[in-house]
């Protein structure tokens, strides 16, 4: 079967899957097409509800696609950021670009708002990323493109955007996108999902679920009450109703009830509260969250005879790692699999420079240029292997007890409560002296020799 997945910039991706494929297979294929390793930050959305009640809902990627989507394939899905994090935690430029596209869409459609001074700065960064340096002779272009970045605008705002755009002349596109995400991450509502509800009195309200907790807002999105995740004692749902038990400052528990347009929306709100709490606030996702499931009628009948059957089994929550675990896992993955990839641009530039400097006509060039570059590449890998896995700046100099792993410098080890490799609690640390430190001195000497060899090769040719 086919799935048509749209990106925030309306680019459509075609994904072919098996008829019984789960959502994760589709998400993995989309991320592979985009070159994204940090898959856990993203999700797939489908349209839930009908008419005025229709709104995008998150697909549970752990369950079969065909059981969540109405009608026959091809299915139409939206690839969006599900868990927003600060941009400095994003390790790939492709991931930062998708964050940028999603935030740009949210700003244009009014789901994320900014005060005037911030709005001008953010719109200028978008303009720098989209159109390049400001050109005072091309005012008509900016007059048509600036308003597209924000839902409301005025002549004063356009002038402020133009002034900010002119200030960042020379900024690269990737840098502009990063700074735009950084500015948006400081806005109220960053990473927040809003749900339209009615309280027990039938008054229209909105519930916002974000990285810090839950916001109870009136129909105009003005905050009534802010509930931190640490205050949430219990969240449940039944039919169209959602119930939230919170701990008041007086020490008593209060249960709040809300009604949503349909059962799917109530389930989506229940999932959002549980999944965001697990992702942002927990050390690790509890097994009770990962393994919780329900069964349909057929599955319930089969389970009477075989308790371990997977027939009709549907997982309730779609979160498998916390924010910290995603970052650490991605960093390890990029280090083990992507070290050569990270070195490719520098290596390619070096080879291009050599190609310009080397004048040998022989295909089997004997001048030693390529050998010198390969030597430098090996030296870089050796230097990286002897650096602290946390800061990647200082030398490894500490052993953790009782697990015995040697991965950190003294300064980083003092900040860790668990081993970053095995997650075992650290009872004490011990400074160590490794022969590797002497080897690193040798490596630095070899590095200089490699540079000298490279320069000699260029001069001799």
TrEMBL record:
Enzyme Commission identifier(s): 2.3.2.27
Gene Ontology CC terms: cytoplasm
Pathway noted in the entry: Protein modification; protein ubiquitination
UniProt domain RING-type: residue ranges: 388-423
Leading EC class: transferase
Keywords linked to the UniProt accession: Cytoplasm, Metal-binding, Transferase, Ubl conjugation pathway, Zinc, Zinc-finger
Keyword Transferase found: yes
Catalytic activity from the UniProt record: S-ubiquitinyl-[E2 ubiquitin-conjugating enzyme]-L-cysteine + [acceptor protein]-L-lysine = [E2 ubiquitin-conjugating enzyme]-L-cysteine + N(6)-ubiquitinyl-[acceptor protein]-L-lysine
GO molecular function annotation: ubiquitin protein ligase activity; ubiquitin-protein transferase activity; zinc ion binding
SMART domains in the cross-refs: B41, FERM_C
Any one GO BP annotation for this protein: ubiquitin-dependent protein catabolic process
Domain FERM: 1-284
UniProt-annotated location(s): Cytoplasm
Domain of life: Eukaryota
Official protein name in the record: RING-type E3 ubiquitin transferase
Source organism of this protein record: Branchiostoma floridae
């Amino acid at each position: 079967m086919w799935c048509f997945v749209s990106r925030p910039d309306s680019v459509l991706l075609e994904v072919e899957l098996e008829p019984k494929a789960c959502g994760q297979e589709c998400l993995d294929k989309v991320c592979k097409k985009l070159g994204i390793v940090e898959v856990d930050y993203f999700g797939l959305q489908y349209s839930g509800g009908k008419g005025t009640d229709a709104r995008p809902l998150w697909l549970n990627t752990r369950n079969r696609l065909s059981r969540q989507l109405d009608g026959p394939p091809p299915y139409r899905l939206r690839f969006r950021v599900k868990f927003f994090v600060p941009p400095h935690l994003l390790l790939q430029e492709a991931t930062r670009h998708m964050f940028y596209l999603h935030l740009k869409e949210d700003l244009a459609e009014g789901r994320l708002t900014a005060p005037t001074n911030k709005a001008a700065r953010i719109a200028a960064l978008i303009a720098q990323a989209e159109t390049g340096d400001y050109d005072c002779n091309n005012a008509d272009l900016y007059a048509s493109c600036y308003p597209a970045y924000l839902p409301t605008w005025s002549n004063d705002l356009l002038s402020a955007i133009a002034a900010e755009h002119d200030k960042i002349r020379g900024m690269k596109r990737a840098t502009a996108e990063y700074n735009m995400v950084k500015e948006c991450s400081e806005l109220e509502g960053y990473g927040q999902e809003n749900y339209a509800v009615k309280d027990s009195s039938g008054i229209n309200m909105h519930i916002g679920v974000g990285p810090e907790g839950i916001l109870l807002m009136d129909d105009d999105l003005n905050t009534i009450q802010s509930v931190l995740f640490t205050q949430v004692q219990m969240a449940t749902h039944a039919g169209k109703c959602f119930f939230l038990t919170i701990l008041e400052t007086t020490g008593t528990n209060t249960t709040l009830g809300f009604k949503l347009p349909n059962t799917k929306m109530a389930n989506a709100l229940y999932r959002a509260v549980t999944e965001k709490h697990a992702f942002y606030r927990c050390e690790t996702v509890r097994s009770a969250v990962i393994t919780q499931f329900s069964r349909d009628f057929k599955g319930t009948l089969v389970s009477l005879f075989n308790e371990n059957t997977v027939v009709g089994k549907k997982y309730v929550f779609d979160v498998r790692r916390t924010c910290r675990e995603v970052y650490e896992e991605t960093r390890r993955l990029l280090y083990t699999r992507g070290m050569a990839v990270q070195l490719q641009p520098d290596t390619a530039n070096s080879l291009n420079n050599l190609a310009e400097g080397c004048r040998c006509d022989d295909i089997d060039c004997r001048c030693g240029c390529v050998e010198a570059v390969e030597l430098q590449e090996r030296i870089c890998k050796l230097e990286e292997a002897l650096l602290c896995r946390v800061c990647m700046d200082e030398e490894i100099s500490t052993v953790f007890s009782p697990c015995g792993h040697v991965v950190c410098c003294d300064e980083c080890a003092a900040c860790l409560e668990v081993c970053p490799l095995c997650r075992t609690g650290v009872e004490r640390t011990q400074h160590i002296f490794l022969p590797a430190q002497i080897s690193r001195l040798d490596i630095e000497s070899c590095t200089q020799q490699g540079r000298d060899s490279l320069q000699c090769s260029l001069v001799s040719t």
